[in-house]
Design brief:
Layout (H helix, E strand, L loop, with lengths): L2 E5 L1 H9 L7 H10 L4 E5 L9 H10 L4 E5 L3 H10 L3 E4 L19 H13 L3 E6 L3 H8 L5 E5 L1 H5 L3 H20 L3 E5 L18 E4 L1 H10 L1 H13 L4
Parallel strand pairs: 1-2, 1-8, 2-3, 3-4, 4-5, 5-6, 6-7, 7-8
Bound molecules: pyridoxine-5'-phosphate.
The site of pyridoxine-5'-phosphate has 19 residues, from β8 and α9.
Length: about 240
């Protein structure tokens, strides 16, 4: 059955707005787990705009489920991953000016570079995922890096304003899932997913995890984290294997 992993970056975003101590992403992670999240995700950005190093450390120490660390493929982040030992690292592209991760990682022509980057990660028993667009060439390149997972970028699908454009993006993702599975990759989905647009994946097999942050934290403002996570986890529990 596919599972929900909850991204708590936006709890840290709110805390960093005042550079204070609340809200506490560690508490939010605990509450998300209690409400049915199968894992917690944090993105430690190079500019530390939301999640801080201590958040990663404390969530790893207190996590009852599993911690996924999203990060750029830099030496600094590799050091942190090897020290923290999350369940999984997810490599993402990072630009300082972007509001959020804007596109997938480019794997084409970087297969060996990424393989070398992931080698020490794998030696520690940490699994690896690559956040990529649903482009067949990217998926093929990703399969040559030794990563066990890809996370298909659903942002273009989620952001599409018109139904036709959305369907085009959906079709690309559906084809990408099949190709990735055929190549032996496990598939996660993430970015921009919410309580409505996720429903198009309900009957789609071959998806392991949904990585969701913003929609859950936005709903949590009105109904609380427990209800917001529970609603999403219950929805995903009805999805195809
Ligand atoms: N997956 C990746 C790789 C991301 O960068 C993000 C955003 O931090 C997400 C999933 C979650 O996206 P959202 O917050 O839109 O649910």
């Amino acid at each position: 059955m596919p599972v929900l992993v909850v991204n708590v970056d936006h709890v840290a975003t709110l805390r960093q707005a005042r550079m204070g101590i609340e809200p506490e992403p560690v508490t939010a992670a605990y509450m998300a787990e209690q409400a049915g999240a199968t894992g917690i995700i944090v993105h430690l950005r190079e500019d530390r705009r939301h999640i801080q190093d201590r958040d990663v450390r404390l969530i790893k120490e207190t996590c009852n489920t599993r911690l996924h660390l999203e990060m750029a493929a830099t030496d600094e982040m590799q050091r942190i991953a090897l020290k923290t030992e999350p369940e999984m690292v997810c490599l993402v592209p990072e630009k300082r000016q972007e509001l959020t991760t804007e596109g997938g990682l480019n794997c084409i022509g970087r297969e060996q570079e990424l393989k070398d980057f992931l080698a020490p990660v794998h030696e520690k028993g940490i699994r690896a995922s690559l956040f990529i667009d649903a482009d067949p060439k990217q998926i093929e390149a990703a399969s040559a890096t030794g990563a066990e997972f890809i996370e298909i970028h659903t942002g273009h699908y989620a952001d599409a304003k018109k139904i036709d454009a959305r369907n085009v993006e959906l079709e690309k993702i559906l084809k990408g899932i099949v190709l990735a599975n055929d190549l032996g990759l496990k598939v996660n989905l993430g970015h921009g997913l919410n309580y409505r647009n996720i429903l198009n994946f309900k009957d789609v097999p071959g998806i392991k995890e949904y990585s969701i942050g913003h929609a859950i934290m936005a709903r949590a403002i009105y109904v609380g984290i427990d209800r917001a996570v529970r609603d999403m986890a219950e929805l995903i529990r009805t999805f195809a294997d």
